[in-house]
Design goal:
about 325 residues, alpha+beta, 60s Ribosomal Protein L30, Chain: A, Phosphoribosyl-aminoimidazole Synthetase, Chain A, domain 2, 2 domains, seven-stranded mixed beta sheet, binds adenosine-5'-diphosphate, binds magnesium ion
């Protein structure tokens, strides 16, 4: 098959969205934006050897390339609608493309996201995905809305994907019964779309966790001009984590490990009750891990009532405002 045939055969799937007036095949996609809505748009590129191992299973890659983008929409509280896909491939390998599409479209169908266009070029393997979502006017969850007194929360458990990566690299030994779990967390992250939508009228700020809680939360602290205090004993760690490494190592993986794609968000005290109801409704577990204080913008770690120092070298990177 040539490239046009590949696009036609694999990337032009019958869509069910009425707001796609023109999908793949013309010069542009034409999309109907609902009235009184704002568009939320985000792009992420995954490069072979930089963001994933060259031999990563194509199905996992197809899933992950879309998942990390949808996670950005989740962090904004947006409803996912459309996606475009730019693929750079060293060669046309149909079995690879089939696997990639299986992972990509399974997730796209789950959230009713339509693939509306893209690009195919030859070169070193790289995948660029752009997602589009909609939001009621003014409802986007930004990073700059946290205020002194707000609680800091996260969804799910933290550090499992980083543990999965370390297991794959042979740096830790995860007990047999948890190996699939941590590997799945690393290769098939699940974007927290429902939680993001539920938080729209409740959270004062939100972002998704791609680089570890400490560094990511520092973005919120700086953008909002507040000081984030985390209580490490509260960090939600999975049974897999607790049975694989020490509690301190678990904290470090949660704070500096990447690829969790959970949400971190802040909530004013007056919305605390609403939060319980809203997230229980969508079946998402969440944990309060700290609060926002006045003071120098940055992240402060506490354990057993004392200040805690990370052993990891990345500490300076998020401790305070960069020079
Ligand atoms: P152009 O020369 O105008 O860039 P292309 O040949 O790159 O056109 O693409 C032709 C059509 O196929 C366009 O509508 C484009 O959006 C679509 N397309 C190309 N690659 C992909 C892809 N990987 N997935 C979905 N649609 C694609
Ligand atoms: Mg093109």
């Amino acid at each position: 098959m040539n490239e046009f045939e590949i696009i036609k055969h694999y990337f032009t799937v019958p869509g069910h969205r009425k707001d796609v007036l023109m999908g793949p095949g013309d010069d542009c996609a034409l999309l109907q934006v609902p009235p009184h809505s704002q568009l939320a748009v985000s792009t992420d590129t995954l490069v072979s050897g930089v963001h994933f191992f060259a031999d990563m299973a194509p199905m996992a890659l197809g899933h992950k390339a879309l998942a990390v983008n949808l996670s950005d929409l989740a962090a904004m509280g947006a409803d996912p609608c459309w996606v475009s896909l730019a693929l750079t491939l060293p060669e046309i390998d149909e079995s690879w493309i089939k696997g990639f599409c299986a992972g990509f479209f399974e997730l796209a169908e789950y959230y009713n996201v339509a693939l509306v266009g893209g690009d195919m070029t030859r070169g070193p393997l790289s995948i660029t995905v752009t997602v589009h979502g909609t939001l009621p006017e003014g409802k986007g969850l930004r990073r700059n809305g946290a205020r002194v007194g707000d609680g800091i929360y996260v969804t799910g458990t933290l550090g499992d994907a980083a543990l999965g990566l370390q297991q794959i690299q042979g740096k830790v030994t995860v007990p047999e019964q948890y190996r699939d779990f941590v590997r799945t967390k690393f290769e098939f992250p699940h974007p927290r779309i429902l939680a993001g939508q539920a938080l729209r009228d409740i959270a004062s700020s939100a972002l998704d966790l791609s680089d570890g809680l400490a560094g990511d939360l520092a973005h919120v602290a700086r953008a909002s001009g507040v000081r984030a205090q985390l209580e490490l004993e509260r960090l939600p760690l999975s049974a897999a984590m607790l049975d694989s490494v020490s509690r301190e190592q678990g904290w470090e993986l949660a704070l500096t490990g990447g690829d969790d794609y959970e949400l971190c968000f802040t909530v004013p005290e007056i919305h605390r009750g609403q939060l319980e109801t809203a997230l229980a409704h969508c079946g998402v577990k969440f944990t309060r891990v700290g609060r926002m204080l006045a003071g120098e913008p940055g992240v402060e770690l506490m354990a057993k009532g004392r200040s805690y120092q990370l052993s990891t070298q990345s500490w300076d990177h998020f401790r305070s405002t960069p020079a």
